[in-house]
Design a protein that fits this description.
12 helices
């Protein structure tokens, strides 16, 4: 495994985080008119409009066995999305986003506690700093109530995010990114249409909300998930997870550029901390005899 391969993996992870961050700003108003579970359902179904024909064109749509693996992935994707949205709705963007990004630290903990691997200290420091930076960017301390359900949803989202990273890395050893993303969202969509039938979807939500849902489905789901699964084939899930914490910082900067929103000084500090953490992981977390892993 070469340094060039590892660098490409890190760049793909950054690309995915950028798309998630920017699409979140563009489509932020959707959550005011569409319930969280319905947003999760819509993004999954809209993503399929892009993923299925693209996978067919690439010759990667045909089932390759082990469909139960993708059924599990689909359930995980549905769980990650809906619990994240529930946490955002209950706690606000700051606390909700910060709780989910505990996921990468859970991944590192899994590597140490279950796989008995040694994670480099610099990766631990970068992961912790990234979460702190996310808290600054999103002003996580604005949580002014003890919403137990919201906190619970955020913790479940963090755990599901960790499972997604580890499981995506596992699937990447056998399947290609487009195949993984397409079948994952096929099963996620099947789950949603059973739980929330399409004929009950609130269609009178306005053109702006529909445009936002399309953006979430295409630029915030189909494209970045292909990039993320590709990254997980090239670099270790713990590294991808730390890089993913750049998403809120990217969202904050995108809001300044695209919407003219102002950031407080502490939020700019948070942006700097996250960028530094991600750069540290890319520069030193990938180096050594096994450049695609944070293992010492």
């Amino acid at each position: 495994m070469t340094d060039d391969r590892a660098t490409r993996g890190a760049l793909l992870a950054i690309f995915a985080a950028t798309l998630w961050g920017v699409s979140g700003v563009i489509a932020g108003g959707v959550f005011d008119v569409v319930p969280p579970a319905r947003v999760a359902e819509a993004r999954s179904l809209i993503a399929l409009v892009v993923l299925v024909p693209y996978a067919a064109f690439r010759g990667e749509l045909r089932p390759q066995g082990g469909m139960w693996k993708f059924a599990l992935l689909g359930l995980n994707l549905a769980l990650v999305n809906v619990t994240f949205y529930w946490a955002l709705e209950a706690l606000g963007v700051g606390p909700g986003a910060t709780i989910q990004f505990l996921g990468p630290i859970l991944v590192l903990g899994w590597l140490v506690g279950v796989k008995h691997l040694t994670v480099r200290p610099i990766v631990w420091v970068a992961a912790g700093a990234a979460v702190v930076g996310v808290g600054f960017v999103t002003k996580a301390w604005t949580l002014d109530s003890s919403d137990v359900l919201g906190i619970g949803a955020g913790l479940v989202s963090a755990a599901a995010f960790a499972v997604y990273l580890l499981y995506g890395e596992y699937l990447g050893k056998t399947y290609k990114p487009v195949h993984i993303a397409t079948w994952g969202f096929i099963f996620a969509s099947l789950f949603w249409v059973v739980v929330l039938p399409l004929w009950t979807f609130p269609t009178a939500i306005g053109a702006g909300a529909w445009i936002g849902l399309v953006i979430i489905g295409v630029l915030g789901t189909a494209v970045p998930f292909i990039a993320e699964f590709a990254a997980l084939r090239l670099i270790q899930s713990g590294i991808v997870g730390v890089i993913a914490t750049a998403e809120p910082a990217i969202s904050a900067v995108a809001a300044v550029i695209m919407l003219g929103q102002a950031l407080d000084p502490v939020q700019w500090v948070g942006v700097a901390v996250v960028v530094t953490a991600v750069a540290t992981v890319q520069r030193w977390g990938l180096a050594g005899t096994h450049p695609t892993s944070p293992i010492a």
